Amino acid sequence: MANFEIIRKIYDVAVDRKANPKEGSYTNYLFDKGIDKICKKIGEEAAEVIIASKNNNPDEIRYEVADLIYHLTVLLVNQGLTWDDICQELINRYK
To answer: Considering Cα of 52, then 89, then 8, then 42, what sign does the dihedral take?
Structure first.
Protein backbone atom coordinates (compact mmCIF):
# COMPACT_ATOMS: atom_id res chain seq x y z
CA MET A 1 0.00 0.00 0.00
CA ALA A 2 1.38 3.40 -0.96
CA ASN A 3 1.84 5.72 1.99
CA PHE A 4 -1.06 8.05 1.28
CA GLU A 5 -3.47 5.27 0.30
CA ILE A 6 -4.16 4.65 3.99
CA ILE A 7 -5.64 8.14 4.32
CA ARG A 8 -8.03 7.36 1.46
CA LYS A 9 -8.93 4.04 3.09
CA ILE A 10 -9.62 5.71 6.44
CA TYR A 11 -11.72 8.33 4.66
CA ASP A 12 -13.67 5.64 2.80
CA VAL A 13 -14.35 3.76 6.05
CA ALA A 14 -15.62 6.96 7.67
CA VAL A 15 -17.93 7.61 4.69
CA ASP A 16 -19.21 4.05 4.93
CA ARG A 17 -19.78 4.32 8.70
CA LYS A 18 -21.79 7.49 8.19
CA ALA A 19 -23.94 5.82 5.52
CA ASN A 20 -24.06 2.38 7.18
CA PRO A 21 -23.63 2.70 10.94
CA LYS A 22 -21.91 -0.21 12.64
CA GLU A 23 -22.67 -0.95 16.26
CA GLY A 24 -19.66 -0.43 18.50
CA SER A 25 -17.84 1.71 15.93
CA TYR A 26 -15.89 4.59 17.44
CA THR A 27 -16.37 6.50 14.20
CA ASN A 28 -20.15 6.12 14.52
CA TYR A 29 -19.91 7.22 18.14
CA LEU A 30 -18.31 10.46 16.95
CA PHE A 31 -20.92 10.98 14.22
CA ASP A 32 -23.72 10.29 16.70
CA LYS A 33 -22.32 12.79 19.21
CA GLY A 34 -21.99 15.42 16.51
CA ILE A 35 -19.79 18.32 15.59
CA ASP A 36 -19.10 19.47 19.15
CA LYS A 37 -17.62 16.09 20.11
CA ILE A 38 -15.65 15.81 16.88
CA CYS A 39 -14.20 19.28 17.38
CA LYS A 40 -13.40 18.56 21.01
CA LYS A 41 -11.45 15.46 19.95
CA ILE A 42 -9.56 17.45 17.32
CA GLY A 43 -8.60 20.00 19.98
CA GLU A 44 -7.44 17.26 22.33
CA GLU A 45 -5.42 15.54 19.63
CA ALA A 46 -3.84 18.81 18.49
CA ALA A 47 -2.81 19.52 22.09
CA GLU A 48 -1.32 16.02 22.33
CA VAL A 49 0.69 16.66 19.14
CA ILE A 50 2.03 19.84 20.72
CA ILE A 51 2.97 18.05 23.95
CA ALA A 52 4.65 15.19 22.07
CA SER A 53 6.59 17.73 20.02
CA LYS A 54 7.66 19.63 23.11
CA ASN A 55 8.80 16.30 24.61
CA ASN A 56 10.83 15.75 21.41
CA ASN A 57 9.52 12.18 21.22
CA PRO A 58 9.27 11.03 17.58
CA ASP A 59 7.27 7.88 18.43
CA GLU A 60 4.76 9.89 20.43
CA ILE A 61 4.57 12.56 17.71
CA ARG A 62 3.88 9.91 15.07
CA TYR A 63 1.14 8.34 17.21
CA GLU A 64 -0.57 11.63 18.04
CA VAL A 65 -0.40 13.00 14.48
CA ALA A 66 -2.05 9.78 13.28
CA ASP A 67 -4.84 10.34 15.84
CA LEU A 68 -5.22 13.94 14.69
CA ILE A 69 -5.43 12.93 11.02
CA TYR A 70 -8.08 10.32 11.85
CA HIS A 71 -10.21 12.85 13.74
CA LEU A 72 -9.75 15.46 10.99
CA THR A 73 -10.93 12.82 8.52
CA VAL A 74 -14.09 12.25 10.56
CA LEU A 75 -14.64 16.02 10.59
CA LEU A 76 -14.27 16.24 6.82
CA VAL A 77 -16.79 13.45 6.26
CA ASN A 78 -19.18 14.99 8.76
CA GLN A 79 -18.97 18.35 6.99
CA GLY A 80 -19.23 16.95 3.46
CA LEU A 81 -15.64 17.66 2.48
CA THR A 82 -12.90 15.43 1.11
CA TRP A 83 -9.14 15.28 1.37
CA ASP A 84 -9.18 16.23 -2.32
CA ASP A 85 -10.87 19.50 -1.31
CA ILE A 86 -8.06 20.14 1.17
CA CYS A 87 -5.40 19.27 -1.41
CA GLN A 88 -7.00 21.66 -3.90
CA GLU A 89 -6.94 24.41 -1.28
CA LEU A 90 -3.24 23.75 -0.72
CA ILE A 91 -2.61 23.81 -4.48
CA ASN A 92 -4.46 27.13 -4.74
CA ARG A 93 -2.30 28.58 -1.97
CA TYR A 94 0.91 27.28 -3.52
CA LYS A 95 0.38 29.16 -6.80
So the answer is: positive
